[in-house]
Amino acid sequence: MQPYRSATPAGSELPVMIEPLHPGEPLLQAFSRLRAEIDALLPRIGGVLLRGFEVPSVEDFRRFAAAFGHPLLNYEFASTPRTAVSSGIYTSTEYPAHQHIPLHNEQAYTREWPMKIWFHCVTAAPQGGETPIADSRAIYRRMPEALRSRFEEGLLYVRNYGDFDVPWQDVFGTEDPRAVEAYCRRAGIRWQWKDDGGLRTEQRCQGTAVHPRTGEPVWFNQGHLFHVSNLPPEVRESLEELLPPEDLPRNVYYADGSVIDDAVFEQVRAVLAEQTVIFPWQNGDVLMLDNMLAAHARTPFTGPRKVVVAMAESASDVLAAGA
Fold first, then answer.
1. How far is CA 230 from CA 2, 94, 254, in A?
2. Average pLDDT over residues 204-225
C-alpha cells in the first residue's frame, strides 16, 4: 500500500500520484511535461493525483484543466446544489458537512456526461472531507452476474422537483417552462407539469456502459443515490406517509418501470464499499479522473473545506467522433 492512501482494495493503483520536479513547481508550467504521462495513465488507471505543485489560485486550476484542449462544461440538469465559482468551475456538492455523499460517476443519471473531471483542494478540512474514489471496471466485475445483467437493460429515473428536492428552476437554470420542455425534448426526457406547478420527469438511462476508448465495460449509474433506500429511514418513512410513490422527490426503477427491491442496492453498496480508495486531501492537490473509469464520493467533515470542480469533454462528442 502506498503511503498517501489510507484505504484501498488489494491490487488497486488508483490514483497514481505525480509529484513536482522541485518544491514549489507551478502546475501550469509543468503541464507540457505532464500531459503525455497523464494521457497514458488515465485510461489505464482511471485517475491521477497531482500533489506538491504550486497552484496559486482557482484561476490557475481552471487554466490547467482547460489546457487539455476541451472547453469546460456547465453543470446542466443538476441533481445536487452547486455554486459557479467562475466560468466552468463549480463548488463541490453543497450538502451539509455531516452528510456522506456515496460513490458515483458524475451525471451517470443522464445520457450525457463529462469524460473528464478535476477536483482542486483549496482548503483541506481539518477532519474528514476526503473524496473517496473507486475503479468502475472493478465494480462492474465484482457485481453479482444476475444483478449486472438486469442493470445492463437500463434504469428509469423519476424526479419530482420542488419542496423536497432541488427546484426545477435551479436544475434547468431557467424560469421558463418552455425552455425546460425544449431541453427535455433534446435529452429524451418525459415531463409532466403538475396541478400545483411542480414538475415530474422520467428518463431511461444506462445502468452499465462501455468506455468508448478502452472498450471496457463499467458500472455506470446513480441508481443507489436515487433509490428511496438512500434516504435516512426516518425521512423515508415520513415521505412515504405523506406522498404517493410517484410523487417521491426521486426514485429509480428497472428499465421496464418495475420496482427495484431494497436488497438489490444493499448488494450494490457492499461492492462499492469493497472497492473504495481513500486518501487525505492536502491543500493544493489536484485530482484528475476519467469519469467513466473512476467514481468519486465525499466523506463527512468538520471545519472549513473548499474543493472546486471542473468538467470537460462531453461523452456525446466522443461517441459522435467515433472515439
1. 32, 17, 16
2. 97
* Three-state DSSP state, 274: helix
> How far is the C-alpha of 202 from the C-alpha of 189, rounded, in Å?
6
**pLDDT at residue 3 tops 70:** no
pLDDT of residue 197: 85
Which pTM was predicted? 0.92
Say if residue 245 is preceded by a cis peptide, omega within 30 of 0. Answer: no
- Hey, what's the cell of 98? 455531516
Go through 251-290 and write b for each residue having 16 or more CB atoms within 10 A of its CB, e for each that does not. Answer: bbbbbeeeebeeebbeebeebbeebbbebebeebbbbbbb
Residue 304 pLDDT more than 50?
A: yes
- State the burial class of residue 97 (Cβ atoms within 10 Å of its Cβ: 0-12, 13-18, 19+): middle
Q: Is 212 in contact with 323 (CB distance < 8 Å)?
A: yes
Closest CA to 218 of 205, 226, 206, 230: 206
CA 295, 89, 203, 95 torsion-angle sign: positive
* Strand ordering across the sheet containing 199-205: 190-193, 199-205, 155-161, 250-254
pLDDT in tens, 97-111: 999 999 999 999 999
| pLDDT, position 322 | 59
Which residues are CB-neighbours of 94 under 8 A, at least 6 positions away? 80, 81, 82, 83
Q: List the one residue out of 285, 229, 253, 316 whose CA is nearest residue 92.
A: 285
Report how far apart the first and last C-alpha atoms of the chain are (Å, whole number): 34
Work out the number of other CB atoms within 10 angstroms of the CB of residue 210: 13
Nearest to 16 by CA among 197, 286, 276: 286
Q: Which of 14, 10, 19 is nearest to 42 (CA)?
A: 14
